[in-house]
Amino acid sequence: MDIMNLNLKLFYGQGCPHCKKMIKNLKELKEEFSFEVKKYEVYENEENRRKLEKISRGKCSGVPFIISQDKKDYICGSTSYEKTKEWLKEVLKEKEKIR
After folding, report:
1. CA of residue 84 relative to chain centroid, distance
2. What DSSP letter does each residue of 23-87 carry, written as one string?
3. Domains in the chain: how many in total?
4. What letter does residue 15 receive in the DSSP assignment?
5. What is the rounded (10 degree) CA torsion for 46, 67, 4, 95?
6. The domain that contains 11 carries what CATH number?
7. Cross-referenced InterPro entries, in alphabetical order (predicted)?
8. Interhelix angle for 17-29 vs 81-97, to 10°?
9. What domain range is 15 assigned to?
10. pLDDT tens digits, residue range 78-98?
11. Overall pTM surpassing 0.85 (yes/no)
């Protein structure tokens, strides 16, 4: 699998300050790394809330919640830019191993 095809899912809540920070961090990180993010709003969208519950399977009960395409690596809750960057590097390194 080419790392250029890395897809992440971000579950967030409209008006959530931690989610807003995560979205900003990911936008900045896209300038350095190649990945796509599909966003799912969960406060107002019941279908997205059910997706979050199904995908997180008890790993995370809140937002922001970001998960890699293979559903192995995730971040739950408020995370700094630096920690998000390190997490992303690890996810990309794992993708490189299976390439």
Report:
1. 9
2. HHHHHHHTTTS--EEEEEE-SS-HHHHHHHHHHHTTS-SSS-EEEETTSS-EEES---HHHHHHH
3. 1
4. T
5. -150
6. 3.40.30.10
7. Glutaredoxin, Thioredoxin-like_sf
8. 50
9. 3-97
10. 999 999 999 999 888 877 765
11. yes
